[in-house]
Amino acid sequence: MKPFFILAVAFLSTTSTVVQSAETENIAEVMLAASLDESRGYCLDIAGGKGALAPIERGLQAHTCYNYTGEILEDQGFDLSLISKGVFRISYFDVCMSASSLEQNASLQLEECNSSETQQFELKDNGQLSLNGAPNLCVTVDGENKKEGRGGTPVHVMRPVSLQLCDDSKSDYQQWIIKSL
Q1: pLDDT at 4
Q2: Does residue 56 form part of some domain?
Q3: pLDDT in tens, 19-57
Q4: Residue 68 is part of which domain span?
Q5: Beta carbons within 10 angstroms of residue 5's beta carbon
Q6: 19 found inside a domain
Q7: Which of 35, 37, 73, 167 has the most CB atoms around its CB within 10 Å?
Q8: Which of 72, 161, 181, 66 is nearest to 121 (CA)?
Protein backbone atom coordinates (compact mmCIF):
# COMPACT_ATOMS: atom_id res chain seq x y z
CA MET A 1 0.00 0.00 0.00
CA LYS A 2 2.87 2.41 0.67
CA PRO A 3 4.27 2.36 -2.92
CA PHE A 4 0.82 3.27 -4.29
CA PHE A 5 0.52 6.15 -1.83
CA ILE A 6 3.94 7.51 -2.85
CA LEU A 7 3.03 7.21 -6.53
CA ALA A 8 -0.29 8.99 -5.95
CA VAL A 9 1.44 11.82 -4.07
CA ALA A 10 4.02 12.15 -6.86
CA PHE A 11 1.23 12.28 -9.47
CA LEU A 12 -0.71 14.91 -7.52
CA SER A 13 2.42 17.02 -7.06
CA THR A 14 3.14 16.90 -10.80
CA THR A 15 -0.48 17.69 -11.66
CA SER A 16 -0.52 20.67 -9.32
CA THR A 17 2.66 22.06 -10.90
CA VAL A 18 1.22 21.69 -14.41
CA VAL A 19 -2.02 23.45 -13.47
CA GLN A 20 -0.16 26.26 -11.72
CA SER A 21 2.16 26.64 -14.73
CA ALA A 22 -0.79 26.77 -17.16
CA GLU A 23 -2.49 29.45 -15.05
CA THR A 24 0.74 31.46 -14.91
CA GLU A 25 1.09 31.29 -18.70
CA ASN A 26 -2.43 32.64 -19.13
CA ILE A 27 -1.97 35.82 -17.08
CA ALA A 28 -0.39 39.12 -18.00
CA GLU A 29 0.22 42.56 -16.60
CA VAL A 30 -1.50 45.60 -18.07
CA MET A 31 1.47 47.95 -18.16
CA LEU A 32 1.73 51.65 -18.98
CA ALA A 33 3.94 51.93 -22.10
CA ALA A 34 5.88 54.90 -20.68
CA SER A 35 7.83 54.22 -17.51
CA LEU A 36 7.42 57.85 -16.33
CA ASP A 37 9.42 58.17 -13.08
CA GLU A 38 9.45 54.42 -12.29
CA SER A 39 12.12 52.40 -14.11
CA ARG A 40 10.24 49.15 -13.37
CA GLY A 41 7.10 50.58 -15.00
CA TYR A 42 3.53 51.04 -13.82
CA CYS A 43 0.91 48.29 -13.99
CA LEU A 44 -2.79 48.18 -13.20
CA ASP A 45 -2.94 46.83 -9.66
CA ILE A 46 -5.41 46.36 -6.82
CA ALA A 47 -5.01 49.33 -4.46
CA GLY A 48 -4.16 48.89 -0.81
CA GLY A 49 -2.52 45.49 -0.65
CA LYS A 50 -0.12 43.04 -2.24
CA GLY A 51 -0.64 39.74 -3.98
CA ALA A 52 -3.30 37.41 -2.62
CA LEU A 53 -4.02 39.78 0.30
CA ALA A 54 -5.11 42.72 -1.86
CA PRO A 55 -8.54 44.15 -0.93
CA ILE A 56 -10.62 44.14 -4.12
CA GLU A 57 -13.07 46.70 -2.70
CA ARG A 58 -10.33 49.36 -3.03
CA GLY A 59 -10.38 49.28 -6.84
CA LEU A 60 -7.47 49.78 -9.21
CA GLN A 61 -4.42 52.01 -9.23
CA ALA A 62 -1.18 52.21 -11.22
CA HIS A 63 1.59 50.58 -9.18
CA THR A 64 5.18 49.51 -9.71
CA CYS A 65 5.06 46.38 -11.88
CA TYR A 66 6.16 43.21 -10.12
CA ASN A 67 7.56 41.51 -13.22
CA TYR A 68 11.06 42.56 -12.09
CA THR A 69 10.72 39.81 -9.46
CA GLY A 70 10.31 37.21 -12.21
CA GLU A 71 6.62 36.65 -11.58
CA ILE A 72 3.24 38.32 -11.91
CA LEU A 73 1.54 38.70 -8.56
CA GLU A 74 -2.13 37.91 -8.00
CA ASP A 75 -3.17 41.57 -7.77
CA GLN A 76 -1.68 42.40 -11.20
CA GLY A 77 -2.49 39.20 -13.12
CA PHE A 78 -5.13 39.72 -15.80
CA ASP A 79 -6.59 36.83 -17.83
CA LEU A 80 -4.70 37.04 -21.13
CA SER A 81 -7.34 35.09 -23.07
CA LEU A 82 -10.06 37.65 -22.26
CA ILE A 83 -8.18 40.91 -22.91
CA SER A 84 -8.67 40.65 -26.69
CA LYS A 85 -12.41 40.31 -25.99
CA GLY A 86 -12.41 43.57 -24.02
CA VAL A 87 -12.69 41.93 -20.60
CA PHE A 88 -10.04 42.74 -18.00
CA ARG A 89 -10.46 39.98 -15.42
CA ILE A 90 -8.07 39.50 -12.51
CA SER A 91 -7.94 35.72 -12.49
CA TYR A 92 -6.97 35.04 -8.89
CA PHE A 93 -9.87 37.07 -7.48
CA ASP A 94 -12.33 36.31 -10.32
CA VAL A 95 -13.32 39.98 -10.67
CA CYS A 96 -13.36 42.35 -13.63
CA MET A 97 -12.23 45.92 -14.13
CA SER A 98 -15.32 48.10 -14.09
CA ALA A 99 -15.77 51.84 -14.55
CA SER A 100 -17.76 53.50 -11.76
CA SER A 101 -19.70 55.35 -14.49
CA LEU A 102 -19.62 56.24 -18.19
CA GLU A 103 -18.46 59.76 -17.30
CA GLN A 104 -15.11 61.52 -17.27
CA ASN A 105 -13.24 61.13 -13.94
CA ALA A 106 -14.86 57.74 -13.26
CA SER A 107 -12.76 55.49 -11.06
CA LEU A 108 -11.83 51.92 -11.93
CA GLN A 109 -13.33 49.38 -9.59
CA LEU A 110 -13.36 45.61 -9.36
CA GLU A 111 -16.68 43.81 -9.50
CA GLU A 112 -18.11 40.42 -10.28
CA CYS A 113 -17.78 39.90 -14.03
CA ASN A 114 -21.17 40.55 -15.64
CA SER A 115 -20.54 41.82 -19.21
CA SER A 116 -22.10 45.21 -18.41
CA GLU A 117 -21.13 48.24 -20.49
CA THR A 118 -18.95 49.48 -17.63
CA GLN A 119 -16.83 46.32 -17.97
CA GLN A 120 -16.29 46.35 -21.74
CA PHE A 121 -13.01 47.94 -22.82
CA GLU A 122 -10.93 48.07 -25.98
CA LEU A 123 -7.15 48.11 -26.16
CA LYS A 124 -6.69 50.09 -29.38
CA ASP A 125 -3.81 49.73 -31.83
CA ASN A 126 -2.36 53.02 -30.53
CA GLY A 127 -2.26 51.61 -26.97
CA GLN A 128 -5.19 53.59 -25.61
CA LEU A 129 -7.47 51.56 -23.36
CA SER A 130 -10.97 52.95 -23.84
CA LEU A 131 -14.38 52.12 -22.45
CA ASN A 132 -16.67 50.73 -25.18
CA GLY A 133 -19.73 52.50 -23.75
CA ALA A 134 -17.86 55.83 -23.84
CA PRO A 135 -15.10 55.38 -26.46
CA ASN A 136 -13.81 58.93 -25.95
CA LEU A 137 -12.74 57.98 -22.38
CA CYS A 138 -9.42 56.26 -21.75
CA VAL A 139 -7.86 54.60 -18.73
CA THR A 140 -5.45 57.31 -17.58
CA VAL A 141 -2.70 57.41 -14.97
CA ASP A 142 -2.69 60.57 -12.86
CA GLY A 143 0.25 62.74 -13.91
CA GLU A 144 0.30 64.83 -10.74
CA ASN A 145 -0.43 62.63 -7.73
CA LYS A 146 1.77 59.78 -6.61
CA LYS A 147 2.84 58.19 -3.37
CA GLU A 148 5.51 55.81 -2.25
CA GLY A 149 4.68 52.43 -0.80
CA ARG A 150 6.19 50.55 2.08
CA GLY A 151 7.96 47.83 0.14
CA GLY A 152 10.41 47.16 -2.62
CA THR A 153 13.98 48.20 -3.25
CA PRO A 154 13.82 50.89 -4.41
CA VAL A 155 10.46 51.69 -2.85
CA HIS A 156 7.37 50.97 -4.98
CA VAL A 157 5.37 53.89 -6.40
CA MET A 158 1.60 54.26 -6.85
CA ARG A 159 -0.56 56.65 -8.86
CA PRO A 160 -4.35 56.95 -9.15
CA VAL A 161 -6.08 55.87 -12.37
CA SER A 162 -9.37 57.10 -13.80
CA LEU A 163 -11.23 57.56 -17.06
CA GLN A 164 -10.24 60.77 -18.83
CA LEU A 165 -10.77 62.11 -22.34
CA CYS A 166 -8.57 60.23 -24.80
CA ASP A 167 -5.90 62.66 -25.93
CA ASP A 168 -2.79 61.93 -28.00
CA SER A 169 -0.92 64.65 -26.09
CA LYS A 170 -1.40 62.54 -22.92
CA SER A 171 0.03 59.38 -24.48
CA ASP A 172 2.57 58.88 -21.68
CA TYR A 173 -0.38 58.46 -19.29
CA GLN A 174 -2.82 56.66 -21.62
CA GLN A 175 -0.87 54.11 -23.69
CA TRP A 176 -0.88 50.56 -22.37
CA ILE A 177 0.83 47.33 -23.34
CA ILE A 178 0.18 43.75 -22.30
CA LYS A 179 3.19 42.05 -20.74
CA SER A 180 3.39 38.36 -19.98
CA LEU A 181 6.40 36.46 -18.69
Answers
A1: 39
A2: yes
A3: 333 345 699 999 999 999 999 999 999 999 889 999 999
A4: 27-179
A5: 9
A6: no
A7: 73
A8: 161
Helix, strand, coil share of the chain (percent; to 5)? 30, 35, 35
Q: Which residues pair with 79 in a beta bridge?
A: 27
24/91 Cα distance (integer angstroms): 10
Q: How many domains does the chain have?
A: 1
pLDDT in tens, 118-145: 999 999 999 999 999 999 999 999 999 9
**0.90 exceeded by pTM:** no
Is the backbone of residue 36 left (phi > 0), alpha (psi -120 to 50) or beta? left
User: 111 in a domain, yes or no?
Assistant: yes
For residues 158, 94, 132 and 126, what is the CA-based torsion angle, rounded to 10 degrees?
50
CATH number at residue 42: 2.80.10.50
C-alpha 104 chain-centroid distance = 21
